[in-house]
Amino acid sequence: MNSTKNQNPWLVLPRPNPQAKLRLFCFAYSGGGASIFRQWYQQLNPQVEIYGVQLPGRETRLMETPFNRLTPLINALVQAILPSLNQPFAFFGHSLGGLVCFELARYLRLVYRLNPLHLFVSGASAPHVRDTDPPIHNLPQLEFIEELRRLNGTPEEVLASPELLELILPTLRADFAVSETYTYTKSAPLSCSITAFGGEEDTEVSQEKLAAWQELTTGEFSMEILPGNHFFIHSHRQELLSLLSKYMAGYI
Known about the structure:
Elements: E1 11-12, E2 22-27, E3 48-53, H1 70-81, E4 89-94, H2 96-112, E5 118-122, H3 141-151, H4 156-159, H5 162-180, E6 193-199, H6 207-211, E7 221-226, H7 232-235, H8 237-248
Parallel strand pairs: 2-3, 2-4, 4-5, 5-6, 6-7
Antiparallel strand pairs: 1-3
Helix pairs in contact: 1-2
């Protein structure tokens, strides 16, 4: 089924569902786009409407300049997403997407007194936990490519193609810059439930860094560890979606 853009380049609806009781907004990892979530509706409760968030610089917005800092990204994203928050909603974000949807939730609470019912963070360290890894977004090209290879999230055929690299490297660098230049500022914990998903073999995000999300909510907290590495979102998608369905069942 073809995706519907709903006249808003920021949001992609794989299957519009006016009767849905909950909207799940999904935020991708560095370099990823809304197509990651295109098939999710097939395995989730039909009462959930999936919105894939499409940031500038990828897929249908490839020719747009990507954001390289989080604050201006959130400011633009809020204006794009706000009209669609007129029904109960939840956020899912993997890796960089977890940070983006967390800060989006804080902004919506502060400015609009709007709160998601649930925040699902996946493969993402709690934002107040200091990252001790050296930044990579400003490395020379060959070193940057080697880091991408080590992280195992970019297909080898892309890394081996100068033409494809020329297209995607600016967005990947910008996405890593968003994360690596971010500084957490303390504020009151969120009130919504938070569930943190992690991969058993994820060398980037430890279970300790996942568990620290509990400090950022006064609501319920849960942690789920799935098989796989940092990209268990692909390798163990069925298990992930089953868990998402279980948690969202209480809202629909």
